Description:
The chain is an alpha+beta fold. The protein contains 6 helices and 6 strands. Helix 2 (33-46) packs across helix 6 (130-147).
Amino acid sequence: MKHVILIAILAFLSSVVFAEGEGIVKLKSKYSVNETIDRVESVAKAKGFRIWVREDFKKMGEKINLTIKPNQLLIFGKGRGGPKLISVSPTTSLDLPLRVIAYEDENGQVWAAYTTPDYWKMRHNIKGKDKVIGNINNILKSITSEALK
């Protein structure tokens, strides 16, 4: 049983990559870029989030004769936690509403990624909002974990 637990923990850790110093969480996806963002969008909607923008950068590149590997951005939010952060640090609105990208790397591996609210705290000098930061961290983890099952 201990071996099973150890293997499960190692498998989880190998699927999560933190881009140290940049505040970016990268999660391996077994789905295509389009399906990854479809799944993130579906989970976010099911949790009551409004979808603000979905952008396909590959298609955008094609319009100007530029080749971009599959890469999509989803911007979503509820307008609850973000305003609490913006009220103490207006520059936080550079990182809000919430954003998740899915992209294909040079080896064909698909990743989902987002910037951590803990990084926003440092980047925007947010003070006194640790509970809000923690809640948003949990929301992003929950949505991406569920979407990538």
